[in-house]
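Session log. Operator J.P. requested a structure for one protein chain; no other inputs attached. Running the standard single-chain path with token output.
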Amino acid sequence: MDSINSSGHIRKFTGRVVNGRGLGTHRMLTLQEFFSKHNLEIFPGTLNVVLKTPIQFNKDRCAYNYRNQFFFWPITVNGISCLVYRWSQCPMHILEIVATTKLRDRFSGEDVRIEIEASLLQKLTATNLYLWNLSWKGREKLYYRDSIYTNLLGKFQNSTFRFKRFFGIKK
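Structure written below.
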């Protein structure tokens, strides 16, 4: 994995490592052929990090794109080069991180320092920030703890997405 370009401005965040639901391991195993095509040796599993604030990645600046379903960007976690991946309905405060080694053994349950090249991020719209605050502010860890809440929000997001697509709304 390439390290972050040191010539750009770096944004720094602190996140908490939390236990996941085991979905990352299955996803990474499914994506092994994709990773092999890009000469990436990724450990089959993810490090789940919850931020206190939302961040939005720029899909046009992703390093890897799997079928417009999963998008990957280079980041560092406590100085280790990694990739973060997102999918279309991923909450903006959730980071699923993949690397060449098992990160969970190093960082289980602790705060980690995340560094991201600023050009990989895009500014949050007022609407997105409002919706994130309404949905997640103070409930950031519920994504991994409460499947009922997460499923309910997912249904709302999917119906909003379909509404926007039907009416041709871009943002």
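Operator note: The mean pLDDT is 80.
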